[in-house]
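Trying the structure run again after the queue cleared.
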Amino acid sequence: MALNPTPRQLSLFKSLLFLLALLPFARMVWLTYTGQLVEPLEFITRGTGDWTLYFLCISLAVTPLRRFTQWNWLIKLRRMLGLFAFFYAALHFTTFLWFDHFFDVREMWKDVLKRPFITVGFIAFVLLIPLAVTSTNGMVKRLGGKRWQWLHRLIYVIAPLGILHFWWMKAGKHNFAQPILFGSIVALLLLIRVYFAWSKRVKSARAAHAATPVRSL
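Done. Tokens:
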């Protein structure tokens, strides 16, 4: 069923989505400020990491959902969802740099090189930065549509790296339920994209074959 919101309705929906996306952050701030947390550092670190993965998964789901439902207006939400993934990733990294190392970059770098799960998480965060920086319409025009699209395909690398970071972090506690769930979701979303790309190639090949004139003997 087609769902085509008016520009005003879409604007209101985006505003509501923006506020909802900030609720986890607001909850972390409130619980920390009121002293309701037994282990605030662990809670914030885990929460910001989880919400980074949530928003990565949601942003990856936009294109398949748009293709299946024909709700083309969903594409207008993807940029904001991606920026919230970066927002929570930045909070996750800041928590690590601030509370674990008190902004001692040298010690932080030693930790990054020493522990593989931190190395992978750090790489994923660094790769997210150019995606966030180039998220504006102005940057799309400067880079050009094709180059911008190629750059933003880094998300297909970032999401698996995020899952691997989460997996290794949970491996120490032998708790693989969440990593398997996140990994399955990301794998499914990426496989759907592979199917879309394959289907597009097949259609293009058929169209080219049909347009080729048949030579008579």
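DSSP finds nine helices and no strands in the chain. Worth checking whether this holds up in the mutant runs.
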